[in-house]
Batch of 2 targets.
Target 1
Amino acid sequence: MSTETTSKVNVTCTVNGQSCMLTAHPLARLLDVLREQLRLTGTKEGCGEGECGACSVLVDGVLVNSCLVPVLQVAGAEIKTIEGIADGVQLHAVQQAFIETGGAQCGICTPGMVLAAVNLLAQTPQPTEADIRNGLAGNLCRCTGYMKIFDAVVRACQRADIKS
Amino acid sequence: MSNQTDTQTKIVGKPVPRKEGRAKVTGAARYIDDLRMDGMLYGATVRSAVPRGRIREIKFGAGLPWDEFVVVTAADIPGENCVALILLDQPYLVAKFINHAEEPILLLAHADKHLLEKARRAVTFDVEPLSPIFTLEESLAKKEIIWGEDNIFKSYQVNKGNVDEVWAQADFIIEGEYRTGAQEQLYIEPNGVIAVANADAGVTVWGSMQCPYYVHKALLKLFALPEEKIRVIQTETGGGFGGKEEYPSMIAGHAALLSWKAGGRPVKIIYDRAEDMVATTKRHPSRTRHRTAVNKDGKLLGMEIEFVIDGGAYATLSSVVLSRGTIHAAGPYNCPNVRINAHAVATNVPPHGAFRGFGAPQSIFALERHLDKVAQVVGLSPAEFRRRNFIHEGETTATGQVIREPVDMEGLLARAFELTDYQAKRERFARANEGRSLKRGIGFASFMHGAGFTGSGEVYLQSIVGAEAGADGRVRLLAASTEIGQGTNTIFAQIAADALQIDFDLIEVAQPDTSNVPNSGPTVASRTTMIVGKLVESAALGLKQTLQNSGLLKANYTTDDWRAACRRHVEQFGLLKSFSQYKPPPGINWDEGKYQGDAYGAYAWAVYVAEVTVDMLTYEARVEDFVALQEVGKVVHPVLAAGQIEGGVAQAIGFTLYENVVWSEGRMLNNQMTNYIIPTSADIPPIRVYFEEQPYAYGPAGAKGIGELPMDGGAPAILNAIEHATGVAFNHVPLLPEALMQALNQTA
Amino acid sequence: MRAYLPDYELRAPRSLTDALALLAREPGGWRAFAGGTDLMVLLEAGLLTHRKFLSIWHLPELKGIEVANDHVTLGALTTYTEVQRDETMRREFPLLGAAARETGGIAIQNRGTLGGNIVNASPAADSPPALLVYDAELELVSTRGTRLLPYREFHTGYKQMNMQSDELLTRIRLPRTTGDLKTYYRKVGTRKAQAISKVCFAAGARMNDGRIADVRLALGSVAPTVVRCTQTEELLRNQTIDEATTKAAREMLMTEITPIDDMRSTADYRLNVAANLLADFLRQLKHT
């Protein structure tokens, strides 16, 4: 279908510190472009309607559902996905805490949950329980009942080496 | 520190990091939708819009390049058009008769998934409608006969003593009716597979699933190929909870049929959330009726229970769901006379299926609500009534199973009450609620859950686990049991590491691939730790035995000795392998005809306490605190075990207060996460988990099963608490604010 | 993704002027696309009927919160997150912050905009009841000029708006005359967070000498549009708060709203809860 090629646009942005040129329909979901063009498959699709948060990424430091962001709107933006959270082989404190406390079970919500937790700690370095519950309320988990995820956030912010 | 050596070497009982944890927190773990293959097509399923009818014609809309599409109908099926499970009644694709809305009729594949979606919408069916039935009442009343001769998939009758003789002697006879609704598993990763299929190479399927050998069995029949031509590989699976027990056989078959027709090009089918919710299985809705005879001392004399579940349009797993629900229907109580009549019936809705608890949450909900009513009539507190009737070692369950392990339900109850300050709150809330718009209540449920397949199930399964050791001393465990988040990889490695007394890191678990791992049975029924874990232990011990018998390994050894022994063995004899097959523990007897005997090898025992508030302005009930106390044998991994309980309790809270499937003409209307409400992090109370450990002689390191248990107690505990808060008895779940309002306004 | 993307267009005009020119050139052809939290959901579900959209997300003219002497002006692209963070908004317009806090999760609050919430015209939207209490005004701009419209006159029926196809909602103006209102906000949703409302109740009032001097009641999810319940307000004005007044007000409110049964709740529930919340508001008002 020739209309598809003519309707595509080029969008330049930075993803996990690397500048890239994306070619896609302007309404293509950032989620799909990350997964299919850049092969950054750590960002997951759970619902496609901004409800589950599995597709969470940071755009210019702001937590968004990448299933609700058309790629045209990230022109010039700096995007961070789960693949860009660890510092090389050194895991982020939040990631380490998720492993230690059992915050990840099936793992499908985990990338989004980690992004939401990283975002929460960047905004609120010493969150209360209510802050944690509120900060993660846009990320649904069906495995854990959230308890071990709360433990992970608490453990992560107790770490001195926390980096946002 | 006399046993220092022992505690240092034991891995079972320690919270080691989960095997695939790093891959999961970094996004490196690859789920089915993360994989793609060269030349891959995308597949879509065109489904029925009506609940029952006869297809007259399939129409392809104008404006699409239909010659570019792979199109599959029932006529293209090379083998038998049925999803082989227990019965062979469910077709892969409707040939003529539609039996439920969203039933698959036609398959499409194309390289452009967006165009594919457009095409899916352009296929329509001319259907002659037939009268459908949607409720279990309509089915029982035979309003239409839609399945077999009487709409009944399966019936059981359990008899203990003679219940007919007790009514005359009873001081009290108490009746009640209890209902539970459908519940969506809502794993966050939707169903998906990739298939490659052609006559030469056979059929290979990768996918998100719980039971690779179920898929294998189904594909054998669908393609009429020899066993070795079918290969099923489980990819990282983003949750199952029973929802990926049988349905992956359907979607795998569909993708494979498309690939077959496309000459072997890979075909990927990923359901979006809307399709996954509207078309795949849910928890069976149920209706339970109790009639209970009690004497004035508060002793149970007799229980007559009728348990009916709605199986949907095809038999699928309904008979075994019914079985577990039936066996759990009389609970952990010593009652001399019991009769249970149970039926699974057909309706024109998508088949209901496995979901954590598998029938038991339904029948336990009824019983534990009913016993609060019974206690009230008899004039005892809910706790005192249960204390007078709890089962003990040496007494028998409803199926006549003699309990051969120490059971201390009274002790569990006492500890659960201590942990929640139950007695004081019970009195304080009752006093303080008068005139308040925020009413508080506390309630509990006591229950048990059998681990492993019911009755002779494990004997029929004959599960096998393998273990192999390489020259480097690394041990690979070979099992078809899947890691779906619950921790299979980690606990298997722990059990093997302890059996072999070597480093945990030396153990790895092979990816379940039917070409490479033996059939250790399905990943269901709280059987993975207790049954398959035991086989892991035996298979691992087999490796050690071989090395020791051949003199390569001495009685006491270090991990380095182990490595050296493996190296020498591989040099001399090749790869070291050991297999272990299931043997029932001694003294287990089950009579399938009479439905009597040892229903399960072991039970976990539990008391759950829920504290709630009910807001009289908005009629919203909220769980404020939840204590889950259970005796589960040896806890293999405290963090994973607690995670299982917490997750199960959260699902039970959803089942009780939030998760309502809205039906219209046999179709789920609210098939979006926006409108099917599962609890968020803001809705879940603190879930406090406690274990008692009474090692089970035939479980690995003494472990029993726990996966399903936490689904059982939440609903009755919460509704018992709501009755305490409001004085109104509610006997159905989900209990939404709208229903609370109606009843509370009537009593006000 | 159930939509066929090549059927759709999304363009990013260079400036507000360009956007308005495009809207004027093809009346009804183009529609504004802000943070996407509603439109992308429809697109994904294959339910987005309109095909051509202008992305306005990047236009600076539509951003920012300005505080003047007699009013506060919010750019139409003000997000829920920005509403919660702004000091003046927190102090003088707490209902709006409360609404913003309860709209979706953090990621939705970061992308959802007040302007989008208004123009999407859902009767279940969270911020409109608060805007109604504050007597918000809307600034609608087209190449023909600018007009200021009381928000109360904006929604004319289910998904119907007093807005021309060449107009763009650019700003929301809140008069700074309500800082002393005693306010009440309660969103009753399907769960505690990330929920669509079954009843959304926003109210404000002033007491004078034991009598209600000023009262504003606005509700969502109880009628084809969000509504100000002026008859109930009228009934309450100049009254003392007692059992009889409360009873009369409850009854009036229940005739003034027209909720329906839908997949989330029932008309009966909405009526009862709306009346209960009104009574609760009056009770709190009496005790302040």
Note: The mean pLDDT of chain B is 97.
Target 2
Amino acid sequence: MLKIENLHVSYGGIRALRGISLEVPDGKIVTLIGANGAGKSTMLRTISGLVKAESGSIKWNDKELVGLSIDKVIASGIAMAPEGRRVFSDMTVLENLRMGAYLRNDKDGIEKDIQRVYELFPRLKERNWQLAGTLSGGEQQMLAVGRALTSRPQLIMLDEPSLGLAPLVVQDIFAIIREINKTGTTVLLIEQNANMALKTADLAYVLETGNITMSGTGAELLVNEKVKEAYLGKHKN
Amino acid sequence: MKKNNQRQGLITAGIVIVLLAVLVLLDNAAWVPPMLLTVLRKGVIYALVAVSMNLLNGFTGLFSLGQAGFMLLGAYSYAVLTIPVENQTAIYQQFKNGGLHFSITESLTNVMGEFGTLIGVIICLIIAGAVAALFAYLIGLPVLRLKSDYLAIATLGFAEILRALVQFEKLGPVTNGSNLLYGFTSFSNFQIGTLHLGTVMPFLFSGACIWIVVLLINSTYGRAFKAIRDDEVAAEAMGINLAKHKRMSFVISSFFAGISGGLLAMYQASVQAVTFKSAMTYEILLIVVIGGIGSITGSILASFLFVGCSEWWLRFLDNTTVVSLNGKIASVIVICVAIVGVVALIFWRNRKKAFADKRNTIFLTLIVGAVLLAGQIKFAISSSLQLPLLRSGFRMVIFSIVIMIMVLFFSKGIMGDRELPDLLQKRRNAKAAKASKGGDAQ
């Protein structure tokens, strides 16, 4: 379980996160929705150790993550698919997946996990030898998720997996996210596409200018009037 | 799979043995033009430094221009450690009591004979690399935080500082100031009986180093380097320690640049700081770009091509008149090939356009090409024609034109980021894919 308490993060003088507390229980899909600049990506970057926290604590299975370097965080079972896909464009699909397992040493286990990714994404198996830069946007997103999975994480953090993808492809991606979750991996999902995210998530938090303003189950927030107005584009009649 | 690897290993070993045999033959046959040996020796040394630069620029994506500086460190370290004690007073005549008063190669030769010389050279080359690597580590601590152009500027400046430092009077007793260092163990010292090995040795040393670089690139570290090149943020998200890997790539690259500096000292049989100007770094950069950024075989091919052109084939461009028949023939062939090549290139680029669109271009190209060719034929027939453009330094103009054409039309270089075996492998893969598809259908 990931437990964040009273987390503060600043960039220079700008306070990006102002005392955030949230919980990601094991085996659930938790989503964090919010507008541009609300601090969603900062949240992920802080958990993974790319950004230093000012104060507060991030407890992962009762272990403190604040102050750990990113390789330690990843080795402890947390993986991240960064925003904007960011696949290694001049490397093949297979090499990209191998990069995800960079910190692992068990060759057989890595091969097994790569096969598992290929089962989840048959499209990637077909494109095994293709350079990642030549894949379509949806395939690149699949690769980014697959790459995060090859580190065999207990918690996978996805930063805007629907960004810039066609609606049909977005549905595919979310279906796969649910499938990943079914195999026992906890998912922390960050989304602007609040509708899809809330439908998929067990638990949801709404982030506004560095504060959490609402929380509840996905279904609860989906019918919440405030959320409807601000994030789902449905006006009160 | 295992069988395949074994076969590949055998083929590689066979190629290496044949290559070495040919080199020994070339070294000792009387009919071999000395220029060919020069090109081979200098070419393979440049190949090593180009590969080391490619490791940094092509595989890790760090644009550094410090190569000449690290070569200088390597060359001086090698030379200082191997000058025989008896020659040191003569060489360091400007500096009282100069020199180290010992020579690693000499001492080892005294103990173990010829074999000792070889061991001594290897040890000194490794020290040469290590000195370069040490400096790279120290300068890398602050400089590697910079990105792209800034890193290039900083490393270029660092290389110039090193060159100035070596010429510093106070360091004279070790570096001999701005004077020559000479008389140390060079390639001409390698000889078994009457069998000369002056060309085989640089190939062995360089080849071994390049092989190590290839192994490195194919390892997990190599993959991490490529990941950093492709996307730093994503690489970091995979758990790659950016600072550590960048430093590692920089240090290793400088290590091999240092070794190639030592080899260059051996090849030239003398060392002087003026040789290692930034122009040398640009030559190496040129090789890397022509060969293809991110291709080892490309860098190797390009370095032979570059050294061949600059030392041999394009020499005639620096003379206003060509007297000898051979020279004439060579120059006519080179220029004709260049003209026909450019014309063919323009045609090829326009091949998909409708005739009406490309009419003007084609006529213009044909006319200019024909006039140039006619000029060449006239030059070939007449006995004492002076060509208006050819003069000392014109070679470099041609080089610059070549690099412009490269960048405009083939920005990926000869090989792009592929390797020679890849090209063969691709064909095999295509065949295999076809075969397996046939199998699926049944």
Note: The first strand of chain B starts at residue 181 and ends at 182.
